[in-house]
Amino acid sequence: MRAPGKMAGLLIGLLIGYACGARATDSELTPDTYAAAAELVRLDGNRAINLRCSGEGQPVVILEAGGNADSSTWYRVQPRLAGLTRVCAYDRAGYGFSDEGPMPGNLDARVDDLRALMDAADIPTPVLLVGHSLGSNIVRNYARRYPREVAGLVLVDPPGQGSDEDMPKDWREQIAAQTAHREEILDQCQRAAESGDHDTLRERCLRPPPTWMSEAVGSAMTQNKSKPTYWRTLRAEIAGNTVVFDMPVPVDESYGSIPLALLRAPEEGEDAPKEVLAVMRAARSQTHERILAASTRGIAIDVPDTSHDIQLEQPQAIVAAIEQMLGRISESDPDNGNRKDLSPAPQ
Questions:
Q1: Strands 127-132 and 260-264
Q2: In 3D, which of 107, 103, 100, 127 has the Cα closest to residue 43?
Q3: What is the rounded CA–CA span in Å between residue 98 and residue 231?
Q4: Is residue 37 part of a domain?
Q5: Domain range spanning residue 148?
Q6: How confident is the model over 23-47, as pLDDT tens digits?
């Protein structure tokens, strides 16, 4: 999936159910285990969240998917990590095999769900949080709210924030028009899902599954993305992205001494005017600089030959960064992960 933000490619791309922008090969298909739920963990006594865990050891690694994505996006990363420690990925509420959550599903609600999930699944803290794209915003929010529960942060290509205000006026007008068109399509797709109109969903709303998805997984994903709950969740997430990405990273954002690694893909040649690209790249650079400065132990890792979807195209780079982070955590606190502390940070 493209990095979230107000740009032309995202407006239509978010309507599609798959991370089709990735240049992943089909030599390593998604295992058929992703065609069904793994462990359904109950929250609030009734809602179920799909959790996929493997491996043994602490600290536990939590994989947080990007926007419009579920646990299957980590299928090339999780097996490679399972030999290092316990690793868990999950479907956020409304995606994959998880039930819909309360609306609006903003960042705070996502953090609340993640914390409730870890508590219900008896996952010991502190954990190592790994977030791709929008998922990086979720885990950053978690670390700010509950720093004692976070052993480390690995952020996979965080999207640029705060570019809209500096965009040329004509570009903002184009985006406003495309946003209105996007809402029309989203509304049509949601109504098609509610009425069971699979022809409209197939022709207007969903692309065929990518070649790296097995037939069983592709079929299951199409079924999941044909549900009204998926479209309500997607619409809420897109609306929330406006709030998340319109504002720059605060200068005073801080994760204290939590070790942090930021993986960044090469800048891509977007299909946009030069002056627009300049604003987008400046916002991305500022975003990454402020995130790195928010930790006293932040490092940047450049990942070559990849698009935004590093977890699909260069999974070993993420595994190497996590392995390095586990070593940094162990050196700084040999007992890290051997306790469970779900108490809030002091106010």
A1: unpaired
A2: 100
A3: 13
A4: no
A5: 8-15+43-332
A6: 555 578 999 999 999 999 999 878 9
